[in-house]
Structures are given as structure tokens and as C-alpha cells.
Amino acid sequence: MAQLVQFKVAVDAEGAEAVCELFNAIHVAMGNADGDGAGRAVIEADRFPEESDTQPELIDLVHAKSIFVSTVVPAGPEAEEMQQRIAQGLWWLSRLHPVGEPVIATLEDKDWQEAWKTHYVTFRVGRRIVIQPVWEEGSAGVAGDITLRLNPGMAFGTGLHPSTQLCLACLENFLQAGDQLLDVGTGSGILAIASLKLGAREVVATDTDALALQVAAENAEHNGLQAQLGQTLQLCHTPELPTSKFDVIVVNILPDVICHLLQERSLLARAKPGAVLILSGIIEARAQEVADALMTQGGRLVERQSQGDWIALVGRAP
Q1: Closest CA to 174 of 103, 94, 278
Q2: What pLDDT band is residue 263 in, cutting at 50, 70 and 90?
């Protein structure tokens, strides 16, 4: 039986998706993103304390006792190259956020893509959003909840990262029924899908990663959005911003990209008068820089939300 080499890194909730993205980017660079077992980074979380008698769907990620990101490659030269790339990538990440050293183990070849699913389970975000993996049967949450059925695949957006959770909370507070929304850098489509379930009439979701858009389309189908009368989801594989104007614009990327969109790409020109802008993926040290970029382009800052060291800014267009 063939053997696999597993790389596993202990992280906190803030570092989980960053390490996951690093592993997936390395797989893509090595050309094995579509291999069986290899080519997928996964987040494993032990989310439920033994002493808790709370229903699993009501437990938030803050209850996690441990979180790991892991991936596997076939044993041999490919594993040696992966080890070198991971060491370099984690060193750079550690300059921004603490991450652990990778633990390396040899495994027997088995159905890796099924095995990791036991660690990604239903959890709650915000007041009434419940994220449920597509492979979990039955309905999650309680009356009045909005359930997002999600298979993140290799796309950014499991719902575990504070920046994504901040966006979801802001959408709960600011999105109005019938709104038109632009989601820049949609990843797994989690924010676009949540917006439609919260009542948006039309969502345009863009990404430069074709694989991410494929994942987003599959997640839209998992949530039955195509069957919802009067709502539309348009997925666009492009770095360009659409020419339409929107009631809500959400960008969950990086501070440099957000500032570039505001200052060089005329993001506010895509906003209707008084439109809401939700800007996330921002560490505390860069928050004022993004706020200044918003205000120098004529927007105004109306709210600032935080979770750990991560910030989401809510602005209004002129």
C-alpha cells in the first residue's frame, strides 16, 4: 500500500485559514492540486469540550480546544520539496502571526478527503447564521436561523477565520431585503450565499481564481439558491470590477488590496449613494490605513468591529 507524508501545524482560529491558503498555494505551484488525497489542505478542529451539554450547532469556534491545519503528499521527492516550501512559507507567516512548527508523519494511503471531514463540523457565527458541512445530514440550528451548507474545498472561506465571521456579522446588521451586493474575492462563496439567504436580491461575486468560482458554484447548488425565485447569483472570473452600482459592497481580502481598490480602482464608483461598504481581512495595525483610504475617496466610517487582532470596517458611500 502506498504511503503518504502528512504535514500538520497547530494554529489558532486567526491563523487557520492563512496556513490553509499557504498549503493550497504550494500544492498549486507544485502542480498537484487535483491529485487524490494530495492537493488539499484541511482544517481540523476539536470544537466540543467534554463538559459542555450545549447542542453542537449552538457552539461557536471560541470553544475549540485545538485547531490544526494539515495536508498530505505521496512519500518521496515530492514530500521533500513540500517540506522545504512549507518551512519557508511558515517562516514568513510567523512574521505576521504566531504559527507552530510542522509535525511530519507517514500515513498509509487511505481516503484522505473523507477522513478530514470528521473535523469540520457544524458551528454558529453571529446571531443566527449556522454553517453546516454538506456531508452532515439533517437540519442544523433552531427556528429563525439561516443555515449555510458549505463544502469549502480548496477555496478561501470555511467560516472559521475571524475576518469571515466579522463580515457575516456585519451582513446581518446592514444588509436589507432586496439589496444588490458585490462580493469582491468571493472564495468559497460563503459571503455571497449568506447575503442571498439574508434577503439580497442580486449578488455579483468576483474572483481571480477559477477553482474558487467552481467551488462557489457548487456551494450555491448545495444551498438551493437556483430555486429561489427572484434572486440571482452571478459568478465572475475576473480581476476587474463590474460597471453596475450596488447597495452593499463586501471585500474580505488584505489591507493592501482594499486600499488599492479604493484608491486606484474606484471601488466607491461602484456604490450607490449611501451604499454600505464592509471591508475586512484587516489586522489591527493596518486598520487606520484602510479607514484613511476610504475617507480620502469620499466615504465615511460608520462602524468598526473587532475579533481578536482582526478588524472589519463598515463605511458609507457619499
Answers
A1: 278
A2: very high
| Cα–Cα dist 97/90, whole Å | 10
Question: What would the pLDDT profile of 267-298 be if each residue is shown by its tens digit?
Answer: 999 999 999 999 999 989 999 999 999 999 99
What pLDDT, on a 0 to 100 scale, did the predictor assign at position 38? 44
- Taking phi over 0 as left and psi of -120 to 50 as alpha, with beta for the rest, 273 belongs to beta
Beta bridge partners, 108, equal: 3
Supply φ then ψ for residue 63, to 5 degrees. -80, -5
| Beta-bridge partners for 248 | 181, 276
**Are 76 and 106 a contacting pair, CB within 8 Å?**
no
Instruction: Report the alpha-carbon distance of residue 179 to residue 105 in Å, rounded.
Output: 49
Closest among 135, 169, 170, 161 to 149, alpha carbons compared:
135
3-state secondary structure of 251: strand
| DSSP 8-state secondary structure symbol assigned to residue 12 | -
Burial of residue 27, with CB atoms counted within 10 A of its CB: 0-12 exposed, 13-18 middle, 19 or more buried: buried
Selection from 54-58, 227-231, 292-296 with the highest mean pLDDT: 292-296
232-237/202-207 β-pairing: parallel
Q: Are 188 and 215 in contact (CB under 8 A)?
A: yes
The residue count of the chain comes to 318
End-to-end CA distance of the chain: 63
C-alpha of 62 from chain center? 17
Give bridge partners of residue 278 from the DSSP assignment: 250, 314
* Count of Cβ atoms closer than 10 Å to residue 73 Cβ: 24
Phi-psi region of 43 (alpha: psi -120 to 50; beta: other; left: phi over 0): beta
Name the average pLDDT for the chain. 84
Write down the pTM of the prediction: 0.74
Residue pair 85/93 in contact (Cβ under 8 Å)? The answer is no
Report angle CA 127, 189, 206 to the nearest 5 degrees.
130
Contacts of 48 (CB under 8 A, 6+ apart): 56, 59, 63
